[in-house]
Specification:
Oligomer: single chain
Order of helices and strands: HEEEHEEEHHEEHH
Number of helices: 6
Radius of gyration: 21 Å
Number of domains: 1
Structural class: alpha+beta
CATH superfamily: Electron Transport, Fmn-binding Protein, Chain A
Distance between the termini: 38 Å
Helix content: 25-40%
Strand order of the largest sheet: 6-7-3-2-1-4-5-8
Strand content: 25-35%
Number of strands: 8
CATH class: Mainly Beta
Shape: elongated
């Protein structure tokens, strides 16, 4: 992903929020046949405070992806959506796409069966927690033999990225008035309404305004 300093996303806390809120990722690697990609859910490693993630793949994807042997690119896609040139006012303009995305690259560490099972338990608990009657991995009718067979069909991994490229392209190059118009359009009921993207723009631009105010009030 080509980086633009104006759109660079470097704050670890914000990157962790992005990963945590968008756990369905794309795993990209290269084997003898060329580029390969798979799609899985991941979690932040709750024993770390960096961008280390844990997850699993179904066999034989660990062979296809070369887990533990080659670099793995993890693509995290946050809120994104179409931005109409009509929202900029009566000026020369073209359509664009606003988005938040991160690329995490590194060589994954393979987990032991015991570690993999704990990750599987956490994944199920994480997503079931939103239900009124969550069902957990070990809950009947699942029994130990079923869960152990499930674990043997997967390979767990932990990845601490050695390279991170993240981009938050949210109309930072537009005037405050245009930004407010875009947020209003995304918050409305039009065909390209996207409340998540609107909220992400509001968060980013509030942070920019706060940083600018702090810089202007600092002693000189």
């Amino acid at each position: 992903m080509r980086q633009n300093p104006s759109f660079a996303m470097t704050d670890v806390g914000e990157l962790r929020r992005l990963v945590d809120g968008n756990p369905w990722v794309t795993l990209v690697s290269r084997n003898d046949d060329g580029l390969v990609a798979s799609h899985y859910a991941v979690l932040l490693d709750d024993e770390r405070d960096d961008l280390t993630i844990v997850g699993h793949v179904g066999r034989p994807d660990e062979v296809v992806l070369g887990l533990g042997e080659r670099e793995l690119l993890v693509v995290v896609q946050g809120p994104h959506g179409y931005i109409s040139p009509g929202w900029y006012g009566d000026v020369q303009s073209v359509p664009t796409w606003n988005f938040v995305s991160a690329h995490l690259t590194g060589i994954p560490e393979l987990l032991s069966p015991e570690e993999n099972l704990r990750v599987l338990e956490k994944l199920v608990a994480r997503f079931e927690s939103r239900l009124s009657k969550p069902r957990h991995l070990w809950q009947p009718p699942n029994d130990p033999s079923f869960v152990q067979k499930l674990e043997r069909g997967t390979v767990g991994f932990r990845l601490t990225p050695t390279r991170v490229v993240a981009k938050r392209k949210l109309s930072q190059n537009k005037t405050p008035e245009v930004v407010e118009t875009i947020i209003a359009e995304l918050s409305g009921d039009g065909p390209y309404a996207d409340p998540q993207l609107a909220a992400e723009m509001r968060r980013a631009h509030d942070a920019i305004a706060a940083a600018r105010a702090a810089a202007e009030s600092a002693p000189r």
